[in-house]
Write a structure and sequence with these properties.
This protein has 419 residues and is of the alpha/beta class. The protein folds into two domains: 2-31 and 288-415, Lyase, Ornithine Decarboxylase, Chain A, domain 1 (Beta Barrel), CATH 2.40.37.10; 40-282, Alanine racemase (TIM Barrel). The chain contains twelve helices and 20 strands. It has helices at residues 23-30, 39-53, 69-77, 87-95, 112-121, 132-139, 173-185, 205-225, 251-268, 282-285, 318-322, 411-416; strands at residues 10-12, 15-18, 21-22, 34-38, 58-62, 81-84, 103-105, 125-127, 143-147, 189-194, 231-233, 275-278, 289-300, 305-309, 329-330, 340-345, 354-361, 369-373, 393-398, 401-406. Strands 4, 13, 14, 15, 16, 17, 18, 19 and 20 form a nine-stranded mixed β-sheet that branches. Strands 7-6-5-12-11-10-9-8 form an eight-stranded parallel β-sheet. Helix 2 (39-53) runs parallel beside helix 9, helix 7 (173-185) packs across helix 8 and helix 8 (205-225) runs parallel beside helix 9 (251-268). The longest helix has 21 residues, at 205-225. It is elongated and about 70 Å long. The chain starts with 9 loop residues before the first strand and ends with a helix. The structure holds pyridoxal-5'-phosphate (PLP). Pyridoxal-5'-phosphate binds at residues 62, 64-65, 83, 106, 196, 199, 235-238, 279-282.
Length: 419
């Protein structure tokens, strides 16, 4: 099970250790629930993905997976830019020191504020609507990619497929070609073409087909417009394992195949070799993150044993949104036999607020610390204050040191917005 945890995870003296720090020490110092991110894991993933795209390629962190200034800064040190999709995410990236050349601006409904900021920073936008080229040009945007939807259904949860016909994202090929023409006519520098198939892709099938169709689309642009794409932005979507029963292909291996497939497909159509851009989110921060919860009420019913934690769907709504499955380790009793089957419930007033249906734990009791691995992506990023529960803190750990990178929200913070 330790292979779901970050690279620095160890069991020492019967206790889970992350980045050289005992889980109980982290919980005592920063409180619970606590999101613990392992710096070593984030950096290892970042460097491996950069290697996968080669020296002319670029990797942009899909900021929405965990919008955090410290993480953006850390990734920038390893040469990564950021993909942002709102004025808020863009502000986070700017706060982390990223400039226009390190950004890709997304969004299926970009507002004026976002386009204006993109123009001010001279960052490229990814055109995602028929009239967006005109709006972007009026705002002063100078560079663009065009997002094309190529009709490939990825075999992932329906909430996170994006590349199919009828998707709210991107433009079908004929409209995308018109957008390229429009952008060129308005004097924009059109860098290239963009696709994003979906998230947590189970294999390479959908992406391979998409890449072939992307090359065909680039060839049709060359034939009809005399314009050649310099960039093939293949989006993100590389998955991670969240549960021991899951079998997910390694993100770096998939990224390498994606890059080589794109190069070959462009070459086969007589197109110049594109620079490969990637926008991974989940696979950069997912495994790096572990959530620590404190166990409160334990109820042993004839039907099952409930273990209630001090968080739940407010800090991690993925079980409710995607049917996500997690596991847990009794972090301070990690060497004890996991002899009891339990269900881990959140503290919210919803029967559906169940984080884990079934997990084996050493007879759980009040005060235990539970560590839930593979929670670094799309958890805090999607958190709410449901039931008036303030959002948890996040720390970055490395070599025996912990750094607070997101303060714990307080009830006073919540009351501040009330009138
Ligand atoms: C969500 C998203 C990503 C990141 O997806 P992951 O599955 O986290 O890798 C990248 N690009 C676009 C356009 C996205 O919408």
């Amino acid at each position: 099970m330790l292979d779901l945890f970050p690279l620095s995870a160890r069991i020492e003296g019967g206790e889970l250790v992350l980045g050289g720090l005992a889980a109980s020490e982290l919980a005592d110092r920063f409180g619970t629930p606590l999101y613990v991110y392992c710096e070593e894991t984030v950096r290892e993933r970042a460097r491996s993905l950069r290697d996968a795209v080669g020296t002319d390629g670029r990797v942009f962190y899909g900021t929405k997976a965990f919008p955090n200034v410290a993480v953006l800064r850390l990734l920038r040190e390893d040469g990564l830019g950021a993909d942002v999709a709102s004025a808020g995410e863009l502000a986070f990236a700017v706060a982390a020191g990223l400039g226009g050349d390190e950004l890709v601006i997304h969004g299926n409904n970009k507002d004026e504020a976002l386009l204006g900021e993109a123009a001010r920073l001279r960052a490229p936008i990814v055109v995602d609507a028929p009239d967006e080229v005109a709006l972007a040009a009026a705002a002063g945007v100078e560079r663009a990619l065009v997002r094309v939807t190529l009709g490939v259904d990825a075999d992932t949860h329906e909430a996170i497929v994006t590349g199919h016909h009828g998707s709210k994202f991107g433009l079908p090929p004929d409209e995308a070609l018109r957008a390229v023409r429009d952008a060129l006519a308005r004097g924009l520098d059109v860098l290239g073409v963009h696709v994003h198939v979906g998230s947590q892709l189970p294999d390479f099938t959908a992406q391979a087909e998409t890449i072939l169709r992307l090359a065909a689309f680039a060839a049709s642009c060359r034939d009809e417009l005399g314009w050649e794409a310099r960039v093939a932005d293949l989006g993100g979507g590389f998955g991670i394992r969240h549960h021991p029963d899951e079998d997910v292909p390694d993100a770096v291996a998939l990224a390498e195949v994606a890059a080589s497939t794109a190069r070959a497909a462009f070459r086969d159509l007589g197109l110049p070799q594109p620079a490969i851009w990637l926008e991974p989110g989940r696979c950069l921060v997912g495994r790096a993150g572990v959530t620590l919860y404190r166990v409160g009420a334990v109820k042993r019913l004839p039907e099952r044993t409930w273990v209630a934690i001090d968080g739940g769907m407010s800090d991690n709504p993925r079980p409710q949104l995607y049917g996500a499955r997690y596991t847990a380790l009794s972090a301070a009793r990690a060497d004890e036999q996991p002899d009891e089957l339990a269900s881990v419930a959140g503290m919210h007033c919803e029967s559906g607020d169940v984080l884990i249906d079934d997990v084996r734990l050493p007879s759980p009791r009040r005060g235990d610390l539970l560590a839930v691995p593979a929670t670094g992506a799309y958890t805090l990023a999607m958190s709410s204050t449901y039931n008036g529960v303030p959002r948890p803190a996040a720390v970055l750990v490395r070599g025996g040191e912990a750094r607070l990178v997101r303060c714990r929200e307080t009830v006073d913070d919540l009351l501040r917005s009330e009138t």
